[in-house]
Amino acid sequence: MREIKLVEVRSELAAGTRGASMGIDALKVASLDKKSSFFTQFEPINVPDANNYLWRDNEFPNAKHIDGVYQVLNNVFNTVELLRLDGKFPIVLAGDHSTAAGTIMGIKAAHPEKRLGVIWIDAHADLHTPYTTPSGNMHGMPLAMVSRIDNLDSKLNEPSEKTIDYWNRIKSIGGDFPKISPKDIVFISVRDTEEPENYLIEKYGIKNFETKEVREKGVSKIAEEALQHLKSCDQIYISFDVDSIDSNISKGTGTPVENGLTVDEAISLNAELIKDKRVCCWEIVEVNPTLDSENAMAEIAFDVLETTTNSLVENF
Ligand SMILES: NC(=[NH2+])NCCC[C@H](N)C(=O)O
Ligand SMILES: [Mn+2]
Fold first, then answer.
1. What ipTM did this prediction achieve?
2. How is its cofactor bound, per UniProt (predicted)?
3. How far is the centre of ligand 2, averaged over its atoms, from the C-alpha of 114 (Å)?
């Protein structure tokens, strides 16, 4: 039996629109409306955010509020490391996707000898760096942080010295080494990338299961192939960004993209993947109820959360 711990990270500092910090509470409202006892079953830990930085002027155009993001990542890192050392299975409910880097750093720090694979279910590759970002929004950068990639080959921006200093500090949280190899990332439904990200995907041969392939082969087959792709990894982290779901449905998120997964595909995919015994942490991010109507996104996201957790509980 896995001992599940809910981790709540109400950060929205690294998103381009305001409101993702309210995603966790929107999930709770959805749970109450659906009369589910989910949130009474697990004890949550609250990780301190740095959303107060949003009131300040931003001094880092190529990595907005990187000083605050650095703090939050450290907080997430410390929490997840301790939970993993204690043998807990963290289910992380987070706002903007940048904090997934802190989660990965924590998992790695607890078991540095174990090769860590990542299944990234998302519309975006989140492989940018301050040198390549089109927006300066750091939720587009977590996978570069943990792979310790600068991608100077695709350099478009001139980040300030202070930005680079913080960026280097972020890449060193949990140690001066890459926490994952980019080859050990599997993308599912990634469909909105920029050129610098395409360069890295090509360079490292990062596998992406496109939405079309998910539909043609079916979810079970994709889950099997994704896990098979990570056969050399000892542990696996799954990151579920709700914008992986099609923009027709996922309006309550900061960066919706068409041609995404259906709700059923998202639910069964996560429920299937989490059955693998190597999976040691699951995360859901980017619900933003302020962009939504009638809390629709959170209701869907809650179904994904509940079904995935049930699958985890039933299969251990
Ligand atoms: N986690 C996310 N929603 N990421 C969106 C990133 C979008 C775009 N690639 C950017 O860097 O701005
Ligand atoms: Mn994302």
1. 0.98
2. Binds 2 manganese ions per subunit.
3. 25
